[in-house]
Structures
1.
Amino acid sequence: MIVFLKVLLSAIFIAGITSTTYSQETEDRKEETSVGEVTGLAIPRYVSMKASRGYARKGSHRNYAVNWEFTKAGIPFRVLDEDGSWRLIETQGGVGGWMYHALLSGKRTVLITNDNTPLMALPEENSKILALAEAKIIGTVLKCELHWCEIEVKTFNGWVHKNNLWGVDPDEVIE
């Protein structure tokens, strides 16, 4: 029997409160690989939302307008820049802004990008299918090989091909 994992969230994020040129501002930063001046960690890198609610702002201070309100712990983000206690983040859809660092975690999560994505028993194309996941399901990364990641979704552990995930780089290995 194959189990279907469905999104049980009301929403991953609430519609934007303001319209910004965020995507254009960050387009050049996506391809650069550097080290954050504050943390010394790689830029870009992936993190997840620690809090169950967080705001992405237009700038790196609480006085800036809110671009987005995120309402689900575990959402994966890509960090594109650092400014003091603030991180410039984006989602799989390319939305985001500046988020306070305490709302973020180094715990790696991924977003399933395609409906009916199989969670496999082994990292092989012909392996047994344990479950099928809908798009937008969030999974916790257990480890990643060159083409596959083992993730945990609710009570299921399984291997997913990286082509069906957002939150890990194509050549990234996580042990």
2.
Amino acid sequence: MTLLDDATIESATQQLGWDRDGDEIVRKFDCGTFPKALEFVNALGERAEAANHHPDIDIRWKDVTLRLSTHSAGGLTQKDLDLAKEINQLHD
């Protein structure tokens, strides 16, 4: 899998509403309640498993923070952007 260049990452994160943190993209989602946060995580878990691409997940009450990176490639790839877009659609 090919690593993305900085310009591509910058453009994509702006469009997707995610932030870059080194070799990861990150976004915090407000789910409203703890049960809704768990529902969101379970739903995105199914999609992540189907894509064989798994985000780092941090649940804090009603907030879910996700981090994406293609560890096997050593940074950010199109796989990360594709899953970020799918996660956005799931949440919105």
